[in-house]
From TrEMBL:
Residues 39-346 form the Beta-lactamase-related domain. It comes from Xanthocytophaga agilis. Gene3D superfamilies: DD-peptidase/beta-lactamase superfamily (3.40.710.10). It is an enzyme of class 3 (hydrolase). This is Serine hydrolase domain-containing protein. Its EC number is 3.1.1.103.
Length: 368
């Protein structure tokens, strides 16, 4: 049944012209072979690491090439993972937020290089001014998590501004622009900047400006107290056993780690870098331009995206997310027409860049 659903889904994405179908009939043989090897590989990852469920999707500029669920979304009810299962994205949420930044730039509502108090006047002034660009590239000096942060209790922050109370009284770690320090709190503050620039709350702006135009209908906030259709259950390993992950409320970090999505929705986002429809190529290039520190050091991080090369020296942009009960990874080959997304409903698993590159490799090999 799982494979039948996958095939039906793929058929929906193929054009109807005879010439195109003839070309794709040749490609489909290659994709079938690639899918077979990739399926075996993902299946081995799942079983070797005792992961309850995985969702994977591979696409190019024109089509979804493969989308499939593995294992269980819920161990108690034996509900299977499907292509519509929603997983926690963790820090891949930052990549989604980058598109909001791009949209506001194009609408001339956001200046990346002025002090953030122009958009969030209530945020305390620090020893040095810092900007939206520096927040987006992790060079602002805003800190990351501390053990003493009040994150273990299920506290719902009613607004983005309210969630800033966790860190807004703290000093900067360094003079902005002089160092790179990964910071999810920096993205919480960035979402407040988005609200100030757009005059909408962050989640409303994301839906109207990013998710709806890109047909990402299955992407939403991970509200801990709400019924969310197709949301998976979340797990972790304790003493070698699979157990329910610790309950969390992610309202303090919607922009940096609080979103739910499907692997197919992530591929829809990634395909923007292959065939832009929402943002201009100039804006997309800005989002994936590596930030340079004041001393010229390359951080290999843009605005919500890591930039590098794969084992075959192909340029890649990517981001991973690790969160309670979840692992996410999105990998894009902008010059080689491929996007790979993978999601798991267990934290602490080894699904990193080498594993996702391996999935991509099967499709590159098949297309030769």
């Amino acid at each position: 049944m799982k494979n039948i659903l996958c095939c039906l889904y793929l058929l929906l994405f193929y054009p109807a012209s005879g010439q195109t179908l003839k070309k794709e009939s040749i490609q489909n043989k290659a994709w079938t072979k690639a899918t077979r090897y990739a399926r075996q590989y993902v299946d081995s990852l799942q079983h070797a690491q005792d992961i309850p469920g995985i969702s994977v999707c591979v696409g190019n500029a024109d089509n979804i090439l493969w989308a499939e669920g593995f294992g269980l979304a819920d161990l108690e009810t034996h509900q299977p993972v499907t292509i519509h299962s929603r997983f926690r994205l963790g820090s891949v949420s930052k990549s989604l937020t980058s598109f909001a930044i791009g949209k506001l730039i194009e609408e001339k509502k956001l200046d990346l290089d002025i002090a953030i108090q122009n958009y969030v006047p209530s945020f305390p002034v620090k020893a040095y001014p810092f900007t939206a660009r520096q927040l987006a590239t992790h060079t602002s000096g805003i800190r990351h998590y501390r053990a003493s942060d009040p994150l273990s209790c299920l506290q719902r922050y009613a607004t983005v501004l309210e969630s800033l109370s966790i860190f807004n009284k703290d000093s900067l770690l360094f003079k902005p622009g002089t160092a790179y320090q990964y910071s999810t709190y920096g993205y919480s503050l960035l979402s407040a900047v988005i609200e100030g620039a757009s005059h909408l709350d962050y989640l409303t702006f994301m839906k109207q400006a990013v998710f709806d135009p890109l047909n990402m209908a299955e992407t939403c906030a991970d509200y801990s107290d709400s019924i969310v259709a197709n949301r998976v259950r979340f797990y972790e390993h304790t003493h070698g056993k699979r157990v329910n992950a610790t309950q969390v409320d992610n309202s303090y970090k919607w922009a940096g780690g609080g979103m739910l999505s499907t692997s197919t929705d992530l591929v829809r986002l990634g395909r923007e870098f292959l065939h832009p429809t929402l943002l201009s190529q100039k804006t997309l290039d800005l989002l994936i331009s590596p930030q340079l520190l004041l001393d010229g050091t390359n951080t290999h991080y843009g605005m919500g995206w890591r930039i590098g090369t794969d084992a075959q020296n192909r340029r890649i942009i990517h981001h991973g997310g690790l969160i309670d009960g979840g692992r996410a990874f999105l990998l894009i080959y902008p010059e080689h027409n491929l996007v790979v997304a993978i999601l798991a409903n267990m934290s602490g698993v080894t699904i990193n860049l080498p594993e996702v590159e391996t999935i991509a490799h099967y499709f590159f090999t098949a297309n030769r």
